[in-house]
Every structure is written in structure tokens, then in C-alpha cells.
Amino acid sequence: MVYLPFRVLIFLVRLPILVALMLSYFLVLQCLPLGSLFKKAILWTILAVPGIWWVDLQVDGVKKGSLAKHSPRLPKPSSIIASSFTSPIDALYLAVIFDPIFTASYPSTRLVHRISLFRAILRALSPPQSRPPLGTALTDLGTILRDHPNRIIVVFPETTTTNGRGILPFSPSLLTSPPSTRIFPVSVRYTPPDITTPVPYVYWDFLWNLLSRPTHCIRVRIAECVYNNPTFNEEYLQKTPPPSPMSTHPSNYFDTPPSSDEIEEPLHRFSMARNGDITTDEKLLLEKIGEALARLGRVKRVGLGIRDKMAFVEVWSRQRRRRFQWQA
User: Fold this and answer.
1) Cα separation of 285 and 233, whole Å?
2) Cα–Cα dist 164/85, whole Å
3) What's the angle, vertex CA 177, arms to CA 150 and CA 126, rounded to 5?
4) Residue 103: left (phi > 0), alpha (psi -120 to 50), or beta?
5) Model confidence, pTM
6) SS3 category, 57
7) Rounded Cα gap, residues 24 and 142, in angstroms
8) Among residues of the chain, what percentage have pLDDT more than 70?
9) Cα-flanking dihedrals φ and ψ of residue 201, to 5°?
10) Which of 45, 57, 99, 229 has its CA 20 to 30 Å from the CA of residue 39?
11) CA atoms within 13 A on the CB side of 101
């Protein structure tokens, strides 16, 4: 057990160092032609400040200690990472290891928004969004891969953060990946798990939990790659039993199909207004990735979507404001 005075001390020591490194990197160093290795070294230093010393990495089908012999099982340039989304550290860790291009997904469209590492970090502390803001430049994964063949693309298909105890329904953004592109489901979890940010705007809570503990451990699991290809999906269907129900809660309002005026209008030619627009093969791809993330994280898939979280965040925010007003 770490006593409170010690936690306060290490928090006060680490906070100015972390702020100085973050400002130096995102305001100055990121814009300079310093090379990928130097930038990764700076990002590793940022991770080291809060005591993230240990990363437990495992890859499906690879024994510990033999990872170097199975490099094809790791994400490479021109591949896609479908990552879980629980904390701002997710994007920072993926940037250190893979130097990828980050994207933002939305449940209402197959297109994605290319974002920076800093935006990806802030997105983990932001409220959920059911559709992209007006004026957002959207594109598809195939176009990004064609324009940047030497980079890895990171997609957060759940579109919003969770507490790490479940996998939310996916955005259809992964369905725009080319048939020959490898998609790697990647699960990132933390010990202790208190640096997850399932609700928005918890900046100080996150910083306190991150900086006041001596160490943190990242548990990373990488599944076997999948393809947006019906041939591979047929093999998966033959070898895999039907997936378990997506939610364990009893039937209620959230299990009923939405009314016609609840369904959003299409945004563009890649928009998904209703589930019927997704083919059987496409559903199978999303099922396979969802099952892989649930298995890697040892969690269940849930049927609560982005609107359910938006409603929860609204209630949570209202209760929090009342609590602060009562204390004042």
C-alpha cells in the first residue's frame, strides 16, 4: 500500500517534468525533422515519467521469448491496427511502438478522420460523438493506405473509450480496408486499471492516478491478422462456433430496434444509416475482430452503443455538478 503523503510527493515531482516534456514534444520537437527514432525516444521518456516501465506483450500463436522469429505476426507498414480504447496512454504507447497514422471513427459513417497523436490522446478524454463535426475532412482507410504505403494505420473501432471491462459495438470504418490489407486486433490493458477514462473531462483524476503511483504495467495482446476478404471469413465461420450474445443484460428499451426518426440520415456515399447496409461478409469481419478483442482482453462484448454512453455521460455529468454545488 502506498501512503498518501508519498503519492502526493511523487505526483508533485512528476507533474512539471511530464508537462515540460509534453509541451516540448508537441509544440517544438514534433515539427522538426529529427527522425523517427529520436521522436520515439522522447515518447518513451514521456511514458517513463509516470512509471510505465513494464510492458507485457504477447502475440497469438507465439511463445514468450520467440517473438523475433515470428515478426510477420506483428503489424507492419500498410497494415491496420484495430485497437481497444480505454485511456490516453493507448495512443501514446502505439505511437512509441509503431509510429502509426491515427484515425477517428464514427458509428454513423464508414469514413474516418485522420488525426494527430495529440488529438488521439485528447479524444480519450472527450465526450463521445455519434457523427463527425461539420466540416470534418473524411476519407476511407484504402485512400490513407494508398497515400502512405509505409505507415501503419490505427483505428479505434469502438469510437469511444470504455473502462476496459467490455467491447462496444463497432463503427463500420474497418469495412473500407482493402481486401489484401492485414488487420491486427490489439488489446491494451493496464495494471492497476485506474488510468482508464470511460467518462470525459476527468483530466485531474487521470493525472493523479497516472502520476501518484510508483509504477504501471501495460498488458498488450496482438491477435492473428484478419482480412476484409470473404474467403477468409468463410474459413473463420467454419472453424468458429457462433458468437455469444453481445450483451448479458435482460431485454429492455436499449434492445429494441430504433424507430424510423431515430435513425440518422446518411452523410455521404459511404454512410451507414441502418444495419441492413452491411453485408453478411462485412458483419462477419466485424464479428471476428470484436471476438478477438474480447478474447484478448478477457472481457465480454456488450450491446450498449454510442447513444447509450452519451445518455450515461449526460446523467453522470449532471450528478457530478450537483455534488460540486452541494459541497460548495
Assistant:
1) 7
2) 8
3) 85
4) beta
5) 0.84
6) strand
7) 33
8) 83
9) 65, 20
10) 57
11) 21
Pairwise CA distance, residues 120 & 67, whole Å: 28
Report the C-alpha gap between 73 and 59 in whole angstroms: 7
Q: Give CA separation, 213 vs 7, 49, 62, 147, 285, in Å.
A: 6, 11, 32, 42, 39
Amino acid in the structure at residue 268: H
Three-class secondary structure assignment of 267-326: CCCCECCCHHHCCHHHHHHHHHHHHHHHHHHCCEECCCCHHHHHHHHHHHHHHHHHHHHH
Maximum pairwise Cα distance, the chain: 62
Whether residue 60 contacts residue 109, with contact meaning beta carbons closer than 8 Å, is answered with no
> Which triple of cell numbers denotes residue 24?
516540448
- Residue pair 306/130 in contact (Cβ under 8 Å)? The answer is yes
Grid coordinates representing 186? 490489439
Q: Over the stretch 251-276, which tens digit does the pLDDT of each residue have?
A: 333 333 333 333 333 333 333 434 44
* Sign of the alpha-carbon dihedral angle for 307, 312, 313, 317: positive
Residue 47's nearest CA partner among 75, 74, 14, 76 is 14
> What pLDDT, on the 0 to 100 scale, is given for residue 13?
97
Structure confidence by residue, pLDDT tens digits, 107-143 = 999 999 999 999 999 999 999 999 999 989 999 999 9
- Pick from 267, 310, 271, 273: nearest CA to 135: 267
